[in-house]
Design goal:
The structure is a single chain. This protein has three domains: about 35 residues; about 80 residues, Type Iii Antifreeze Protein Isoform Hplc 12 (Alpha-Beta Complex), CATH 3.90.1210.10; about 120 residues, no CATH class. The longest helix has about 35 residues. The chain contains four helices and ten strands. It has about 240 residues and is an alpha+beta fold. A hairpin with a 6-residue loop joins strand 6 and strand 7. The strands form three sheets. Strands 5, 6, 7, 8, 9 and 10 form a six-stranded antiparallel sheet that branches. Strands 1-2 form a two-stranded antiparallel ribbon.
């Protein structure tokens, strides 16, 4: 009987140790999960106006860039984290303003920048005018990915409806396009230039006469998909 009590006591002790170890492991892994993505990373931020046509190396030499740390999960995938021989000669394809994160997509190799825009292979650049509110305020920048929605009349002309027009569209330029030689704005501040294929360009151009364009700012986790249009009757369903 005494032996059984001893075995039971030892078993209880073992279970307590195992339980405590499991609890400690769970707490540690929870801490790791909570900290995941919070590790600070260095990114470049503009401290002054960087005109289109300025090389990355020249911007550093002119003290127009500073290094700041932000949580890794908040850093865009194409945030510039270093300036070296591999990218110092790349040219800004749009004006970069103070406080802007320096994105690699806003710089192009000199031969790409000759046209003023770095176009991905197989795409063409199309510009449309979008009002401030529909373009998500000032949060859309060159290099952003956006979904484009169209608000347009219903077939009977008695109401309006909204539908996804294009998804995952690369923004090439937003707002003022500055001539480095004069510093003067060349286009209205509401102009958006995007890279699209031919069919998407045709849809985008046609949509400018059909209704009002709205943008949805996307990140790597955003998901959008074609769906029937939303009308007034769908608002509270």
């Amino acid at each position: 009987m005494k032996g059984r009590r001893l075995v039971a006591a030892v078993l209880a002790l073992v279970l307590a140790v195992v339980g405590a170890g499991a609890l400690w492991w769970y707490a540690q892994s929870a801490d790791q999960r909570a900290a995941q993505g919070l590790n600070p990373v260095d990114v470049y931020v503009a401290t002054g106006d960087i005109p289109a046509g300025t090389t990355l190396g020249a911007a550093v030499a002119a003290n127009l860039l500073t290094v700041q740390q932000i949580p890794q999960r908040l850093a865009p995938a194409d945030a510039s984290t270093k300036v070296d021989a591999s990218n110092s000669s790349n040219v800004a394809v749009t004006e970069i303003r103070p406080g802007d994160l320096v994105l690699l997509s806003r710089f192009a190799a000199p031969q790409q920048a000759a046209s003023g825009l770095a176009l991905p292979a197989g795409t063409i650049a199309v510009s449309v005018d979008v009002a401030d509110t529909p373009r998500v305020g000032n949060f859309v920048h060159p290099g952003s990915r956006v979904a484009i929605f169209l608000l347009y009349p219903t077939a009977d002309g008695k109401g309006k409806q909204t539908r996804l027009l294009l998804q995952d569209v690369l923004v090439l330029a937003v707002g003022d396009s500055v001539d480095p030689s004069t510093g003067t704005a060349q286009v209205p501040s509401t102009r958006l230039t995007v890279a699209v294929d031919q069919l998407s360009a045709e849809k985008l151009i046609q949509s400018t006469t059909a209704g009002t364009l709205y943008l949805g700012l996307m990140n790597a986790q955003s998901t959008v998909a074609p769906a029937p249009p939303v009308t007034d009757a769908d608002l509270f369903r």
